[in-house]
Amino acid sequence: MKKFVLCKICLVVFVALFAAESVIAGNWNKNSDSERVDDQYAQIDKAGKGIQWRLRPTSLISRAEQIIFVPDPLGSDDQVIQFEVSDGDCGENKQPDGSKWSDCDGGKDRAEINNRLPERGEVWYQWEIFFPKDYLSISPAKNIHSQYKLISEKNKKKNSRKYLFFEEIKYGLFFRGQKLVDDVRGKWTKIQVHANWTTEKKGFLRVYANGKLKFRNDGYATLRPGYDAVRIHHGIYRIDLYRYLKSRNLKVAPKQTVLYKNFSISRTKPD
Fold it and tell me: Which parts of the chain register pLDDT below 50?
């Protein structure tokens, strides 16, 4: 009898240790001592030119498996990050002003990484995004894939503010109402953004999709009053899911997966 009890205790301890190890291996954000995963992110950071940047998972991640490194589905040797959201993948955190933010309270799901360092002045951004062929659009809900948030470095207690974003609508990719790509499924789409982040009227914003200029706005203040920098986010951010569920008479939103690679934040145009 004692041996049986001892075996049961050993089994429980083994399972607990295995579960803990799995979480540490998969979720950098909740376990910052995970050197292996942090090294993978550090390899991405080295791609920048003339500006420091540090992409890491946000604090609004509910499962370790939401953000993982995977092989390129099209066979390249590039480092690829997979983002996944299922119904209920929502989190919460404490805001700079001390208030609580909860995706769960507002019908939102999220799996994102963001730059931990501020971006200002003239900056070039680049990334590639891949939507699997079986990806399901959730229009009329809003589905954001990469966004810029306004931040204040001078006032550390000021909350960030959602500003500019790329949105998938019925399998097309849009930026500020301008269609960039007709159908994003089954292929890599390269996005480049050339911006001058400033409070003066010499700012500009230009967006390229697969090398072609698709959006341009010059001669305006690209930073709003009270903010002095931006921060880019990549991944999946689903908003107003009730719109999709109501339109389809469903109770659960589908799982979605997108992949990213070739990140760059630099002072000069990426190669």
Answer: 1-33
